[in-house]
Prior knowledge:
Number of helices: 8
Helix content: 25-40%
Amino acid sequence: MKVDFTRWLPAIAKDxxxxxxxxxxxxxxxxxxxxxxxxxxxxxxxxxxxGAVAAIDRATGKAATTAxxxxxxxxSGLTTGSATGKPPAGKPxxxxxxxxxxxxxxxxxxxxxxxxxxARAIVDAAKKTGVGDRGAVIGVAxxxxxxxxxNLGHLGAYNDHDSQGLFxxxxxxxxxxxxxxxxxxxxxxxxxxxxxxVGGWQDLPLTAAAQTVQVSAFPYAYAQWExxxxxxxxxxx
Length: 237
């Protein structure tokens, strides 16, 4: 059943697509998570929020590796770009994927099969919704920040309100039912539909485009994932 994502109070959950959402209790509170679909830009005023990253690490049992300027990035799975600097045949170029340059120090994490599958769902949704490879980079980077590309279920008392899924979308803010927002295809389509409602999103830096949709309390946090997101999209596109 197709869902009209322009109506922000969907009532019908998708039954044809079943998924497994990662639910964990007893972790530190997540910060800087999605609040609501919107097309009104919020001011960018704060730096990356490490508390959210650490909380997801504890929730998933994964240790993040942040690449400082004096360190080499993590090389794991589909996380690095072309060694020659040239994209593989038929793949988008670095200039297409990161047209405005990166903002600040970059972070990388190793990716397991579940994360790669979720990244693939986001890239596929980007193609279907017509936001292109640049939109896919914004989507993957946003999910890397919000959930480390894990389809997080409800974290109990440590949840950020009722945020769930790849983009930590909230049912109470109109993103959909818990079943819907923990469906990677639905969640990514909803994110990209909201992104398309942001005027001139293609011309915005990644962190500004993501923040306009997510309305996070920590808007700069998205920027740190731009390079890894671009590498993932380049290889999956």
